[in-house]
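To make the argument concrete, we let one protein speak, a sequence paired with a row of structure tokens, as a model reads it:
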Amino acid sequence: MTKIVVEQNNTTKRPRKRRFLKASTVFVIVMLSYSVLHFLLMWVGVNFNSILLSFKSFNRNGTYSWLSGDRFFENFQMIFTNISKDVDNYKSMLLSSLAFFVVSCFVTLPIALFFSYFIFKKILGNGFFKVIFFLPSIIPLIILTTIYSISVGDNGPVGQLLKVFGLNPANLFLTHQSSSWMIWIFCVWAGIGYDVILLTAGMSRIPRDILESCKMDGVPSFFEFLRIVIPLTWSTITTLFIFGMMSVFTVFLQPWYLAPKVNTTWTIGTNIYFASKTGRALNAPAALGLFYSIIGAPIIVGTRALLNRFFGEVSY
């Protein structure tokens, strides 16, 4: 009889299951909801609205109306008309934009890969170098360009060094040739930190057993870098290469901040940005952006598919 009473008491004291979400789950949901909302508003919403504007006309009363019939592609026809009227200007913008692709993919990325490997090998002060490389990535662009302009100016440390070699810092941002070089150097300096952080993160995933095996077999660091590290981090390298290709369209404020008086350094993005900022009608720059996206998207997708063929995917 006593045993039955004890069992009944145990059943009545059994705790009920909580139906509330854990605090950690609520925190994750709140943080993700902000990111998702930001993505939906600032990327999906903006780009979707730009696509709609590409097929609209701007009215005198400040409103937009849909194009129809023979005028449906009027904004895109205007693009070809403007290109035929000003071939030299569009050619200059295209070459300036392609230059940033070369700088990002074939200059910044290899340099970042080189430094990332040395940081990955735990050189003395590797944490300090991580911070130094990443600082330009978290500082606003206007501040970075200001610091860069002052440092290479007449009274800046780089400017003083240039005077020693007989160069005039005041003329660096006044001509097309010199200003282009200075903008490219800035993009390398400002963009290398982002690549280094992602590359070192990718390298840190490599199993230590593989590296220890290379060390025991006496594999030189150069061959370890080429035959082990690069293939195992190829997915990260491919992603950064694609980001570099997208710089053809995403680099637009750097030429304006560093060389505002040299219009020949303007890129495709710079042209679209100021066309949408200075004019009331947004249908023309929206159509121009969609036109370049239609051309660039297949090239980027094809390049990614080609790069993925070099090394197979590795799971570890």
Summary: The two ends are 60 Å apart (CA to CA). Confidence is low (pLDDT under 50) at residues 1-7.
